[in-house]
Design a protein that fits this description.
By secondary structure, this protein is of the alpha/beta class. It has one domain: 3-Layer(aba) Sandwich (Rossmann fold), CATH 3.40.50. The chain has four helices and three strands, in the order H-E-H-E-H-E-H. It has helices spanning about 5-20, 35-45, 65-75, 90-100; strands at about 25-30, 50-55, 80-85. The chain has a three-stranded parallel β-sheet with strand order 1-2-3, with helices on one face. Bound molecules: nicotinamide-adenine-dinucleotide (NAD). Nicotinamide-adenine-dinucleotide (NAD) binds near residues 56 and 66.
């Protein structure tokens, strides 16, 4: 069973509030290499947000389509995009991403 670390959540909320007050939005987009996720990421990046994508590039359909989506995003928004290739069910990875990226 997943147990929430209260200190971690408190710390995260504080950081998020500070970031929002400062005007910076860092948005985590799961499945961001896919159809809906990549379009969502593009809209967020276009309005000035920082976007963190997590996608495992699975082979439900040709992963080359997904890689192409990521390449296009990275080409257009190199400064404000981070991509993690991995599974959102991987708890350690998700913890690391939250600790490093501090999505708001
Ligand atoms: N496309 C549509 O018209 C539509 C309409 C209604 C609902 N939806 C739903 O919206 C969601 C996204 O649809 P889509 O068309 O963008 O699909 P998609 O397959 O293009 O995108 C999903 C992305 O999620 C990634 N992914 C899947 N499991 C993952 C995991 N465990 N960890 C990390 N990444 C993972 C895949 O690699 C893929 O890139 C789906 O749940 C779909 O059922 C889609």
């Amino acid at each position: 069973m997943f147990k929430i670390d209260e200190g971690f959540v408190r710390d995260l909320l504080r950081t998020s509030e500070a970031a929002i007050e400062g005007g910076e939005r860092r948005i985590l987009v799961t499945g961001g290499a896919g159809f809906i996720g990549s379009h969502t990421a593009r809209r967020l990046l276009s309005r000035g947000d920082f976007v963190v994508i997590v996608d495992n590039l699975n082979d439900y359909y040709d992963p080359d389509f997904k890689k192409r989506n990521l390449i296009e995003l990275a080409k257009d928004f190199p400064e404000r995009l981070r991509v993690y290739v991995g599974d959102i069910c991987d708890r350690e990875l998700v913890h690391r991403i939250f600790a490093e990226e501090r999505p708001t």
